[in-house]
Design goal:
By secondary structure, the chain is an alpha+beta fold. The protein is about 35% helix and about 25% strand.
């Protein structure tokens, strides 16, 4: 397996462990922290990810979808603001200031679009694999693959690969405003 696949597998296992911890947290009768979700989160604030029962630090303000980039342990996750509660100052004093996870810089710099125009099918599939691993780790829900129109060979190779990829929930050709048949819109599985 390639290094990026190993990294993705480790991340999936960690997310599964977090989900089990969340179930155990809820089963022990821990109530959700009181109060509404915070409206004005800023970078560096300490929060509780309610669904995971996990503390984290905000690394990016809410995006246009109302999701915030939060570091929870070694992972950087995109979490809806509605799933967060600001931790009171007293609860954050005992928390060590974690360093950003290794992939966080890459996650913040990763584009929601991959352009494979001009590549041979084999090269495009290799780039697509790396990109899907990175996009999944970065917490993207949807990405766009630009393959161009041309003869359609690259589009067909991309579609065939996406149909077998474990991180892909669904895909479709772009609408005219999204690039038409020269682009494929990919919905990624949520962990």
């Amino acid at each position: 397996a390639r290094p990026s696949q190993d990294t993705a597998q480790r991340a999936r296992l960690h997310l599964r462990d977090l989900a089990h911890a969340s179930d155990a947290y809820a089963a022990q009768g821990h109530p959700a922290p009181p109060g509404p979700p915070p409206e004005d989160l800023r970078t560096g604030e300490h929060v509780l990810v309610v669904s995971l029962g996990q503390r984290g630090i905000v690394h990016a303000a809410p995006d246009s979808h109302g999701e915030v980039l939060v570091q929870a342990g070694p992972l950087a996750l995109r979490v809806p603001v509605s799933d967060l509660r600001r931790l009171p100052p007293g609860e954050t004093d005992s928390l060590p200031e974690p360093s950003p996870p290794a992939g966080l810089g890459k996650a913040l710099a990763l584009s929601a679009t991959l352009d494979v125009r001009g590549l041979r099918a084999e090269e495009a599939i290799e780039e697509l694999d790396k990109y899907l691993d990175d996009a999944t780790l970065a917490g993207f829900n949807r990405v766009t693959v630009i393959h161009g129109k041309g003869t359609g060979a690259l589009r067909q190779a991309v579609a065939a690969h996406l149909s077998r990829h474990p991180e892909v929930a669904a895909f479709r050709l772009g609408a005219e405003s999204e690039g038409g048949s020269g682009a494929t819109i990919v919905d990624l599985r949520r962990p």
